[in-house]
Structure formats: structure tokens, C-alpha cells
Write a structure and sequence with these properties.
CATH architecture: Up-down Bundle
Number of helices: 8
CATH topology: Four Helix Bundle (Hemerythrin (Met), subunit A)
CATH superfamily: dinb family like domain
Shape: globular
Number of domains: 1
Number of strands: 2
Structural class: mainly alpha
Distance between the termini: 26 Å
Strand order of the largest sheet: 1-2
Length: 168
């Protein structure tokens, strides 16, 4: 198995696991404010998906992110969400079905992009504000590290709010 096949397999798993986490999620669970200094799931979803959207579309392909091309700011009624502070994260109120739709569009488009790549494409260098990096490193970081880490948080918070996190 080459690195691209591995990445595709991992992304397929992320999409399946995300669907398991949010499939039966209620609006109450999406917005539940956990104790301490942790943002609710709503904030985590928009942050992690927005980062993935930017990485796959703007950074890797030079295209507008799905957020822009799909008018998601208007649909969700919120500006793009980066990393929100605790107060901002807890004020965020979203329609759960629209959130699921945005995430699914980003993941589907990401899979289409990955399926069009050749293994050698992962070595292509991309220059960002943080310097130069190989496309494969950027994609792996966005999917396997960043998005997956936040999915773990989402699963745990859903469990703490009375739901079932990862199916399994």
C-alpha cells in the first residue's frame, strides 16, 4: 500500500466515524456546554471542518473553500469559525442538519480530490505563511491529526452529554 492509498483509507474511516458520531446527535448535544474550559461540539465541528476545507480547497487546489462557494456563512448564520474562545464557542447556535450537510460536502469533495491524485502528487511542495511543506504532509495533518483529534473530542463530549460517541 502506498501513502496515497493509506490516506484514502484513513479518510474513508474518518467519514464513517464522523457519521456515527453525529448521526443521532441532538441539537442539545451539539450545543451542550461542558464544565471547565472546553468548547461545545458545535464549535469543534466548525473549527475542524473549516480547517480541512481551507487545506483541501484553498491551500492544496487554489480554489475557494466549500464554505465560500456554498454560501455557508449565510446558511449557518455565522462567519467562518477558526478557533473560538470559550465565550464565543458557547454562544454559537447552529442548525444540526445544516452542520451535517456542510461537513458531508467538505468530506465528499475531499474524497473526490484525493481520488484524483497520483502518489507522486503527495511530494508536491506548497508554500504557505508557515513555510514550505509537502502536500502529503499537509493533507495527513489536516485529516489524520487535526480532524481525527477533534472527532475524539466530539465523541467524548457527546458521551458526557448523555449520548453515544463512537459506535463500536
Amino acid at each position: 500500500m502506498d501513502a496515497l492509498d493509506l490516506l484514502k483509507t484513513q479518510v474513508t474511516g474518518l467519514r464513517r466515524d464522523f457519521a456515527n458520531i453525529v448521526g443521532d446527535m441532538t441539537s442539545e448535544q451539539l450545543h451542550w456546554a461542558p464544565p471547565g474550559v472546553t468548547n461545545p461540539i458545535s464549535s469543534l465541528i466548525l473549527h475542524s471542518t473549516g480547517f480541512l476545507d481551507q487545506t483541501v480547497h484553498r491551500t492544496a487546489q487554489g480554489k475557494p473553500p466549500i464554505w465560500d462557494s456554498g454560501n455557508w456563512q449565510q446558511k449557518l448564520g455565522t462567519p467562518p469559525v477558526g478557533r473560538l474562545d470559550l465565550e464565543g464557542g458557547r454562544k454559537l447556535k447552529l442548525d444540526i442538519n445544516l452542520v451535517k450537510q456542510y461537513v458531508n460536502e467538505v468530506l465528499a469533495s475531499s474524497e473526490t480530490y484525493l481520488n484524483a491524485l497520483k502518489p507522486a502528487d503527495l511530494d508536491r511542495k506548497i508554500t504557505t505563511s508557515r513555510g514550505e511543506n509537502a502536500l502529503g504532509n499537509m493533507l495527513s495533518g489536516a485529516f489524520v491529526t487535526h480532524f481525527a483529534d477533534h472527532m475524539g473530542e466530539m465523541s467524548a463530549l457527546k458521551g458526557c452529554s448523555g449520548g453515544k460517541g463512537y459506535a463500536g
